[in-house]
Specification:
Aspartate Aminotransferase, domain 2; 3-stranded antiparallel beta sheet; Aspartate Aminotransferase, domain 1; single chain; 7-stranded mixed beta sheet; 12 helices; binds pyridoxal-5'-phosphate; 378 residues; alpha/beta
C-alpha cells in the first residue's frame, strides 16, 4: 500500500506497491522473458471474459482511445466496402467514438439520449430494423462522463439477433463488471491497462472474436493502428510490432497476478461496489446529492451535484481535498455544475471513509455548511 496522494479518478488510479515495484526492472523488447510476459498477459485478459478458444487478445501501445480508434479502424470496413456504425449516445465517450468514425471516414449513424438516461435495447432493435445497412453497433458499457451503466447484455442479444457486430468500449468497466463472451456475444471488447485492472496507463487491448478479426485484413487506414497486422505479427514472432511499453506491460502483468490472487472479477467488482455505496452514503450525509439514480449507477465513478453555495468553486475545493491526501475529478456535464469521485484503485488503509472525511473537512474549510452524518449512538 502507498502513502502517496490517493487518486479518486477513473484511471490513472492508485496502484499497489507491488505493481509499482514491478516497474523497477528494464526489459529488452526482444527478450524471450519479456515476450513470455506479453503472452501470459494476453491469456490472462482473455480469461477475464472467458474468451479462450473463441477470441483473440490484441494489445496496443497508447492510451485507451488509441485502442478504440484501432478497433473501429480495423473491425469496421471503410465506407466503400460497406461499413456503417451505429453509435447510441449518452455521454462524452460515445461522442468520442462518433468523432473517431467521422475522422476515419466510416459511415456513421447516432441516436442521442439525455446524459442521465440509459441506452435502451428496444431502440437499438428499431434502429437496426429501420436501417439494414448498419454493420456494427459501438456501445460504451460504463459511460465514465457520468458513471451511468448501459445494459450491455440485452443490447448484445439484440445486435446478435440482427446479425451485426458489437464493439464495446469497456474502458472503465473491464475487470470489475461482468462481460462473459460465452453469454454476451460481441465482436470486440476494448479496455486499457490503467483502469479497473489497476495497472499503470500506457497500453490498451482489444479482445476480438477470432472469426471477426480474421476477416479484417486490409480494412485499416493506418499502419500503427492496424490490429489485424499487430495480431498476425505477434502470433508469428511473439513480439510487439513496434517498441512495446515495457514497464507498462510488466506492471499490468503484476497487477493481473494480484487481480487473480484476490479473487478476480467478483472480488474487484465487489470492492468497487462497497466503495461506491460508502461514498454515496457518506456524501449524502454531508448533504451532497449524486446525479444518477442508484439503479443505473455503475460502481466505478459517481457524479455529484456541486454544493449550492456561492462559496463553492471546484478548483478551491479540489485543492482543499488534495491537501488532505485525495485527488478528485472535475465534472463533465455542460448543463449542471458537478464533480466526480472514482470508486476504483487502492484507497489506502482508511478506504472510502478517509475520502468522505477529506471532503467534509475541505467543505468546512471553505465555509460551506455540511450536514454532519448521523451518529450511530443515538
Ligand atoms: C469509457 C471510456 N472510453 C474511452 C476512454 C479513453 O481513454 P484514454 O483517456 O485512456 O484515451 C475513457 C477514459 O477514461 C473511458 O472512460
Amino acid at each position: 500500500m502507498t502513502t502517496d496522494t490517493i487518486l479518486l479518478t477513473p484511471g490513472p488510479l492508485t496502484t499497489s506497491a507491488r505493481t509499482k515495484q514491478s516497474m523497477l526492472r528494464d526489459w529488452g523488447s526482444w527478450d524471450s522473458e519479456f515476450n513470455q510476459i506479453t503472452a501470459r498477459l494476453r491469456q490472462g485478459l482473455l480469461r477475464i471474459v472467458h474468451g479462450e478458444g473463441t477470441h483473440e487478445c490484441v494489445p496496443l501501445q497508447g492510451s485507451g482511445t488509441f485502442s478504440v480508434e484501432a478497433a473501429i479502424g480495423t473491425l469496421v470496413p471503410p465506407g466503400e466496402k460497406g461499413g456503417h456504425v451505429l453509435v447510441p449516445n449518452n455521454g462524452a465517450y460515445c461522442q468520442r467514438i462518433a468523432k473517431i468514425c467521422k475522422v476515419l471516414g466510416r459511415q456513421l449513424s447516432t441516436f442521442d439520449y439525455a446524459e442521465d438516461a440509459q441506452i435502451r435495447p428496444e431502440d437499438i432493435d428499431r434502429l437496426l430494423t429501420n436501417d439494414p445497412s448498419i454493420t456494427h453497433v459501438a456501445l460504451v458499457h460504463c459511460e465514465t462522463s457520468t458513471g451511468i451503466l448501459n445494459p450491455l447484455h440485452e443490447i448484445a442479444l439484440v445486435v446478435q439477433r440482427h446479425g451485426k457486430g458489437l464493439i464495446i468500449d469497456a474502458m472503465s468497466s473491464f475487470g470489475a463488471l461482468e462481460i462473459d463472451a460465452r453469454k454476451t456475444p460481441f465482436d470486440a471488447v476494448i479496455a486499457a491497462s490503467g483502469k479497473c485492472l489497476e495497472g499503470v496507463p500506457g497500453m490498451g487491448f482489444v479482445l476480438a472474436r477470432r472469426a471477426a478479426l480474421e476477416r479484417c485484413e486490409g480494412n485499416c487506414h493506418s499502419l500503427a493502428m492496424d490490429l489485424y497486422d499487430q495480431w498476425v505479427y505477434m502470433n508469428k514472432t511473439t513480439q510487439w510490432r513496434f517498441t512495446p511499453p515495457t514497464h507498462v506491460v510488466a506492471a499490468l502483468d503484476a497487477a493481473l497476478t494480484q487481480y487473480f490472487e484476490e479473487g478476480g472479477l467478483a472480488a474487484r467488482g465487489g470492492a468497487y461496489a462497497r466503495n461506491c455505496r460508502e461514498l454515496i452514503t457518506g456524501l449524502a450525509g454531508l448533504g451532497l446529492r449524486s446525479f444518477l439514480p442508484t439503479a443505473i449507477q455503475a460502481p466505478i465513478i459517481v457524479t455529484f451535484h456541486a454544493p449550492a453555495s456561492p462559496r463553492y468553486e471546484f478548483k478551491a475545493f479540489y485543492n482543499a481535498v488534495k491537501q488532505r491526501g485525495y485527488i478528485l475529478y472535475p465534472g463533465k456535464l455542460t448543463t449542471v455544475e458537478t464533480f466526480r469521485v472514482g470508486c476504483m484503485g487502492q484507497l489506502g488503509a482508511r478506504g472510502m471513509a478517509g475520502a468522505v472525511e477529506a471532503v467534509r473537512d475541505a467543505l468546512q474549510d471553505m465555509g460551506i455548511a455540511v450536514r454532519e452524518p448521523e451518529s450511530s449512538e443515538a
